[in-house]
Design goal:
The protein is of the alpha+beta class. It contains 25 helices and 18 strands. Strands 4-3-5-7-6-14-11-9-8-16-17 form an 11-stranded mixed β-sheet. A 5-stranded mixed β-sheet has the order 10-18-15-12-13, with no helix packed on it. It has a two-stranded antiparallel ribbon with strand order 1-2. Strand 12 and strand 13 (643-649) form a beta hairpin.
Length: 721
């Protein structure tokens, strides 16, 4: 029976599991499935819409077109809604990556599932030690760990089903109405995450009927109230699914799945593939569950109804996916579709753990298998599974049968070859460079949570520590996310766009490979279309921003941020207002001859170390067409004239030469100047100008009255320290 002592243990278990997941956090997409679900979240958080036009370049790979012509995800609504609070909070801060914060969703869901495994086993009268070990085996010894880092819907569905199971058992013990509502809510969550979980709904309903029969016998009238309470939120979830289908595809019964997505695999071929095949066999990816299979008869003898329910969920999922045309789930680590049933499979570990407490040899064997299982999960956590898949698909072709059924091509063996620092798929080690603060923060959270679990198990914890542990988890997660905040050209362009946009405009994101980076950093509220050019934006807007490598058509304003360019297109009678620039306009008006006016200068730090890079941005307004292609120069010089940093290039890196500038057009560009490693400490001037590369002649600087200022202009100072 569960007791008040179990709450601090369950909370500490949740904290420990989530801390491990945060320590091994990746924070990036691994599949187009994730992109599809989070694209809905993106539209909903920014605009209150449901489309995935952000991914229009994908076509019908992950979405289907609705009657209104917009692209919609075929995935369930559950994951979209679960990630929405995290995504919305991230949108409020430029320092947090939107995708990165949303990627914590399944870490929270899986840690909660582990806590429920513990609480359920306690209600089944297993001692706290056995229950803790079974929960840890689920959370760290099965595919639940790698999938806690992704945004697939199976983890959330598993949480929902386990929530329903736990509260049905609690209803058995306490006969309270709240338990029935929670149990119905759990099944509702699972249905919202993946509608195919309807296949196990009858088994959960049957378990409720068994409990009602035990309590009330054949007094059928006493059954009605509990059944209605349990079914209330389940029916609400089904209604939401139908409404979501109607919203996207015009019919409550239309899910958007394509005709080729069907049950087309011979059943036993798929069943073997899911369970024992070298490439996708369930037991090879979670070896500890071999023990669960062997121990299930003992679990059945003690808990007949509960053991049959757990088996029904496991077998039901296998039987459902075995004939599916893509039973291996495409780009994934192991048999992804079976992640939902992992907590149910882990329950029957409890009798084996009990027996191991009395038999030393069994304990050693079980411990060795647990370590092997954890090592397999680390293999899936440390390196992105896509590295292997991309190489093997290039060698054999997409989803070649050998990758599924031939031992020498098994990802479990091939993945080892990718265990190199430059391939690490962990946020604090991405690219082989360690972020020690991120690493130490994660390790500290694991240590503190582990000590809290030890104290709760030893009955030495205090009630106030529970709240403190949660605060510590939140603080640690924020510190980690701040360390992994978006950086680079695309995020900086996204920040600039968000600061300049106006209601009624839209964005054409023309580079598909920059989708994740842009989505992660962009905190604006405009409709983002993932299309090749502005001509492919399907609705009318007041103005359109083109975000990519540069649009060849004449634009009202152009901003170059490293590799990414923002082009602003609007009607000729509505020029770009310079007051929208992300920097204050210069107090004094200066210009280069009669060609261009320097509107603003945006500098970064006012101090820089030798060998570091100084960044600044220049914003120009063209005054007249130019026949000469001028080169922009920016230099850091001593007052005596010696240079310690310099860059010379055509505007927009050559993408918008001055010969293309039209009168009134705005051009902004960021310049990165590496400072000489042997630069002496002191204060330096930052100067800029333009010159004709062919003749070497500089354009003269003039003040507002037209008086000459020289061949260069001092636009700021910087301290080299």
């Amino acid at each position: 029976m569960s007791s008040h002592r179990d709450r601090p243990i369950a909370l500490s278990l949740f904290a420990l599991l989530f801390s491990v997941y945060l320590l091994t956090f990746s924070g990036v997409y691994h599949s187009s499935d994730e992109m599809s679900m989070l694209a809905v979240t993106d539209s909903l958080a920014r605009r209150g819409a449901w489309d995935i036009e952000l991914l229009r370049w994908m076509g019908e790979q992950q979405g289907s077109f609705g009657p209104d012509g917009y692209l919609y995800s075929r995935k369930g609504i559950g994951m979209t809604l679960a990630a929405l609070p995290h995504y919305w909070l991230a949108l409020q801060s430029q320092s947090l990556g939107n995708v990165q914060v949303a990627m914590l969703t399944n870490g929270l869901a899986t840690a909660l599932t582990g806590a429920l495994v513990y609480l359920l086993l306690r209600r089944l009268h297993y001692n706290s030690t056995v229950s803790i070990l079974a929960a840890l085996a689920f959370g760290l010894g099965t595919m639940a760990w790698p999938y806690a880092r992704y945004l697939f819907s199976e983890s959330l569905a598993g949480l929902g089903l386990m929530l329903s199971f736990y509260f049905l058992v609690r209803f058995r013990d306490e006969q309270d109405r709240a338990s029935l509502l929670w149990a119905g809510a759990g099944l509702g969550i699972a249905l919202l995450a993946r509608l195919n979980n309807a296949i196990v709904a009858p088994f959960l309903g049957l378990l409720l009927l068994v409990y009602l029969y035990r309590q009330h016998g054949q007094n059928w009238k006493r059954w009605i109230g509990p059944v209605v309470l349990y079914g209330l939120l389940v029916l609400l979830a089904l209604a939401i699914v139908g409404w979501y289908n109607w919203l996207r595809f015009g019919s409550a019964l239309t899910t958007g799945y394509l005709p080729e997505e069907r049950f087309a695999t011979p059943f036993f071929e798929g069943l073997y593939g899911l369970t024992l095949s070298p490439g996708k066999g369930f037991f090879w990816y979670s070896p500890i569950l071999f023990v669960a299979l062997v121990a299930w008869p003992a679990f059945l003898r003690r808990h007949r109804a509960e053991a049959l329910l757990a088996a029904a969920v496991v077998v039901g999922n296998m039987a459902f996916y075995a004939p599916w045309y893509l039973w291996w789930a495409g780009h994934a680590w192991g048999p992804r579709f079976l992640v939902t049933m992992l907590p149910f499979a882990a329950l029957s570990l409890a009798p084996a753990l009990e027996a191991a407490s009395r038999r030393r040899g069994l304990a050693l064997a079980l411990g060795a298998l647990a370590l092997l299982s954890a090592a397999v999960q680390l293999l899936g956590v440390a390196v992105d599974f896509n590295l292997y898949l991309e190489d093997i698909h290039a060698e054999l072709g997409l989803y070649h049968p050998a990758t599924l059924f031939t031992l020498t091509y098994s990802p479990l063996l091939r993945q080892i070859a990718y265990l190199r620092p430059e391939n690490w798929d962990i946020a604090w080690a991405r690219g082989g460079t360690l972020d020690w603060i991120g690493l130490l923060t994660g390790l500290g959270l694991v240590l503190v949570s582990g000590l809290a679990l030890w104290g709760a198990w030893r009955k030495q914890s205090r009630g106030w520590l529970a709240g403190g542990l949660l605060v510590l988890l939140v603080a640690g997660a924020i510190v980690s996310l701040l360390r992994y905040a978006p950086g680079g050209d695309v995020p900086q362009a996204a920040y600039a766009l968000a600061s300049m946009e106006r209601t009624g405009e839209a964005v054409a994101l023309t580079e598909p490979l920059w989708t994740e980076s842009f989505q992660n950093a962009y905190d604006g509220r405009l409709w983002v279309w993932g299309v090749p050019s502005i001509e492919d934006v399907a609705t009318e807007h007041d103005a359109i921003w083109s975000a990519g490598q540069g649009d060849p058509d004449p634009a009202t304003a152009r901003f170059q941020v490293g590799e990414m360019r923002l082009d602003y297109f609007t009607a000729p009678e509505r020029p770009f207002d310079a007051s929208r620039l992300p920097v204050a306009l210069s107090a004094e008006r200066v210009r280069l001859d009669d060609a261009a006016e320097l509107l603003a200068v945006q500098t970064g730090d006012d101090r820089v170390a030798p060998g570091e890079t100084l960044s600044l941005a220049l914003y120009w307004r063209a005054l007249a067409p130019m026949d000469t292609s001028y080169t922009v120069f920016v230099q850091v010089i001593e007052k005596g004239g010696g240079k310690v940093a310099q860059t010379d290039r055509l505007p927009c890196g050559g993408g918008c030469p001055t010969t293309t500038w039209r009168a009134g057009e705005l051009i902004g560009e960021r310049y990165d100047l590496p400072v000489d490693v042997d630069a002496a400490p002191g204060q330096y001037e930052i100067i800029c100008g333009m010159y004709d590369l062919a003749s070497g002649e500089n354009l003269p600087w003039l003040d507002a009255q037209g008086d000459p200022l020289g061949s260069y202009l001092v636009v700021g100072t910087v301290d080299v320290q």
